[in-house]
Design goal:
The strands form three sheets. Strands 1, 2, 8, 9, 10, 11, 12, 15, 16 and 17 form a ten-stranded mixed β-sheet that branches. A five-stranded parallel β-sheet has the order 4-3-5-6-7, sandwiched between helices. It is elongated and about 65 Å long. The longest helix is centred in the first third of the chain and has 18 residues, at 68-85. It is an alpha/beta fold. Helix 3 links the parallel strand 5 (120-123) and strand 6 (143-146). The protein has helices at residues 68-85, 106-115, 127-140, 170-183, 197-212, 231-239, 253-262, 302-313, 326-343, 348-358, 371-379; strands at 2-4, 29-32, 50-58, 89-97, 120-123, 143-146, 163-165, 188-194, 216-223, 244-248, 270-272, 292-296, 366-368, 384-386, 393-395, 401-411, 417-419. It folds into two domains: 2-170 and 304-405, 3-Layer(aba) Sandwich (Rossmann fold); 185-293 and 407-419, Rossmann fold.
Length: 421
């Protein structure tokens, strides 16, 4: 397990990205942030209960639809538990579809939520989709809080302090993945990637880290979201005869993987990322035994997974098959509720001013691990440091978490993956 640290940037959002990439062990990566200590005043309980309106812009359809259920389940569970605590904030949630950059479902969802007066939107999952509506939310004074955006571009976005995320930047996932490939003994790799904020950002970091380890990217090829034919890209990469292939895709993986196998590539040398690290089963027509991949997030406690499933199935849904970004979604809602309680307000700007504080990123707040326990501290006049299911979080001035874990997974003969670190 490796440790990566960085300090905070200015709250003006004229922010800088991580300078230089340390070569880290590829078993897992924990980002431990060092935030400066700030003097804070005690927060008083609100004079009356606050009603916090939020909405979700998460993928019910499109190329990341497999992430929708665990993310929405995380939101639902958090809403349930905040409201059951009856500790000063009641959350009203409206669930909406983000779709993807191709079907553009967000173009209906976002204006609807804006007109309903939500203080914050949870989403999108896709960095590329968030980029298409973030400026609109900023102009409307609404918080955008993503549980899954990983593009490094958001660290320096001009967002007036209204953009936050519980998922770490791909500067971290890319470092772990690049080192994993090198430590597995590969020397010459090919990379196929989606030509958007997510794909290009992750591609750049993997390439930099792998080449810094002494390896060579012998071929790369990109495609656009919405493309359905990938023969040219596969031909470009296979012609270079790589000893491993990195696939930075969404659900296009189901089409691309068989093309590589049919061209003579060994699927055990595939490396996947969070955008396609799915329990594929029979949905992919070739065997993936031995393939590996990375995704942000810690090992989830069994009781948390059970609570997620209980909350999700209670709404008439089938049991969850995947838990990716469920913890990050849960924590996003809890943090928004705690910030609202600490501010004594449901005004988005007031909530945004408290988000770093309640995450533990700006001072020496008292540690707590649930909304109910944290709310007791705030209502008693104290300052909290919420440690959630996604980790310690501790936002920096850029709205990025400074504590995060990248998990490593491996596929078996059934095309289902298990966590190996």
């Amino acid at each position: 397990m490796s440790v990566f640290s960085r300090g905070t940037a200015s709250r003006s959002r004229a922010r800088t990205v991580i300078g230089g990439l340390a070569i880290a062990g590829a078993s897992a990566l924990v980002l431990a942030g060092c935030a400066g200590t700030a003097t804070t005043t005690d927060s008083a309980a609100p004079a009356e209960d606050l009603t916090l309106k939020i909405g979700t812009v998460l993928p019910q359809t499109g190329s990341l639809a497999f992430l929708g259920p665990p993310e929405e389940a995380g939101v639902q569970l958090a809403v349930n538990e905040v409201n059951e605590a009856a500790a000063g904030v009641t959350v009203e949630a409206t669930f909406g579809d983000s779709g993807d950059a191709d079907n553009k479902a967000f173009e209906t969802t976002v204006p609807k939520l804006q007109s309903e007066g939500v203080a914050a939107m949870i989403g999108a999952a896709s960095s590329g989709v968030t980029k298409l509506f973030l400026d609109s939310n900023v102009s409307e004074g609404i918080i955008t809080f993503s549980p899954a955006n990983t593009s490094p571009d958001f660290t320096t976005w001009d967002d007036n302090g209204l953009y936050w995320r519980t998922a770490p930047s791909d500067l971290l996932q890319g470092e772990v993945l690049g080192n994993l490939i090198a430590e597995d003994g590969h020397k010459n790799i090919g990379i196929i990637y989606q030509n958007d904020a997510y794909g290009t950002g992750l591609y750049g970091v993997v390439k930099e880290v792998f080449e810094a380890s002494g390896g060579t990217v012998v071929a790369d090829a990109s495609y656009n979201d919405g493309d359905t034919s990938f023969d040219a890209q596969v031909a470009t990469i296979t012609a270079a005869n790589p000893d491993a292939i990195v696939l930075i895709t969404f659900d296009q993986f189901a089409t691309i993987a068989p093309l590589f196998v049919n061209a003579g590539q060994d699927a055990s040398n595939f490396y996947l990322v969070d955008g396609n690290l799915k329990q594929w089963g029979a949905d992919v027509s070739v065997g993936l035994d031995g393939a590996k991949g990375t995704t942000p997030g810690p090992v989830l406690a069994d009781d948390f997974q059970q609570r997620l499933n209980d909350a999700w199935t209670a709404e008439g849904n089938a049991e969850l098959e995947d838990f990716s970004y469920s913890a990050e979604s849960y924590d996003a809602v809890v943090l928004l509720a705690l910030a609202s309680l600490a501010a004594g307000s449901t005004d988005p700007a007031a909530i945004a001013e408290k988000l770093q504080e309640v995450s533990g990123g700006s001072g020496d707040g008292e540690k707590c691990e649930s909304y109910a326990d944290c709310a007791d501290i705030i209502n008693g006049g104290g300052v909290v440091d919420y440690d959630g299911y996604s980790g310690g979080i501790a936002f920096d001035d850029a709205g990025d978490p400074t504590e995060a874990t990248i998990g490593i997974f491996q596929y078996g003969a059934d095309n289902m993956h298990t966590r190996i670190n």
